[in-house]
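Let's practice the habit of predicting before peeking. Look at the sequence and jot down your guess about where helices and strands might fall. Then scroll down.
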Amino acid sequence: MNFADFDDPVKNECEGKKPIHLDRDLMKDFVMFCRANEKDPQRVAEYLIKLGIHTPNENRVCIDINNL
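Done guessing? Here is the structure:
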C-alpha cells in the first residue's frame, strides 16, 4: 500500500488552490472577524476576492488598486 492511497483531508482541501500570504496582524484581525460572525475564513476570503474582481465598475464596490 502506498501513502498516496490514503484519503488525506488536508490534501483534498488544498487540491487546486494556491496560498495567499498576508500580514500577520491583518490575518489575526480577519480570523477574529470571521469567528465573530461564525463564518469560515477561507470562504469569506474567496467571496471578497470574487466580489472585488467580478463586480462591474459602475456598482458601489470600490477598490482603490492604485493606492496599494
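How did you do? The chain has one domain: 7-67.
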